[in-house]
């Protein structure tokens, strides 16, 4: 996701609180994602696939697994900060755009979400208190 940045750039203080998943092709780690669960909500972050392995279905397979796993764990809402240019990819997995947008390090993002087994009816302010 940030191949031109130092490893410290992608580290977050919350990394120890997340569950980290990876998909391997033989012995090579080709796709990763981290899940941070807070009650009945979860955020997936750091979702990336090596550029030479993109468009082969690895990321889709990993994301499908994580979505199923979070549902199994009782999550009712899952969301991510999607790059604007990748929003259509996430829509294929049932995530919808919200009104929340922001920019970071020269990239534009939109918060996308998927409600599982019913609506949570949360206000925009409640969304970001996680």
Automatic annotation (TrEMBL):
GO molecular function, one term: acyltransferase activity, transferring groups other than amino-acyl groups
Superkingdom of origin: Bacteria
Keywords: Transferase
SUPFAM superfamilies in UniProt: Acyl-CoA N-acyltransferases (Nat)
Every N-acetyltransferase domain range: 1-117
Gene3D superfamilies from the UniProt entry: 3.40.630.30
Listed name of the protein: GNAT family N-acetyltransferase
Organism: Paenibacillus sp. BIHB 4019
């Amino acid at each position: 996701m940030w191949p031109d940045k130092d490893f410290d750039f992608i580290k977050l203080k919350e990394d120890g609180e997340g569950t980290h998943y990876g998909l391997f092709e033989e012995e090579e780690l080709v796709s990763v994602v981290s899940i941070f669960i807070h009650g009945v909500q979860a955020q997936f972050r750091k979702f990336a696939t090596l550029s030479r392995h993109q468009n082969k279905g690895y990321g889709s397979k990993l994301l499908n697994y994580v979505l199923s796993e979070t549902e199994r764990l009782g999550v009712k809402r899952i969301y991510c900060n999607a790059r604007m240019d990748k929003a259509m990819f996430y829509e294929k997995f049932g995530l919808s755009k919200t009104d929340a947008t922001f920019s970071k390090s020269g990239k534009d993002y939109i918060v996308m979400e998927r409600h599982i087994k019913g609506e949570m009816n949360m206000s925009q302010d409640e969304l970001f208190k996680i």
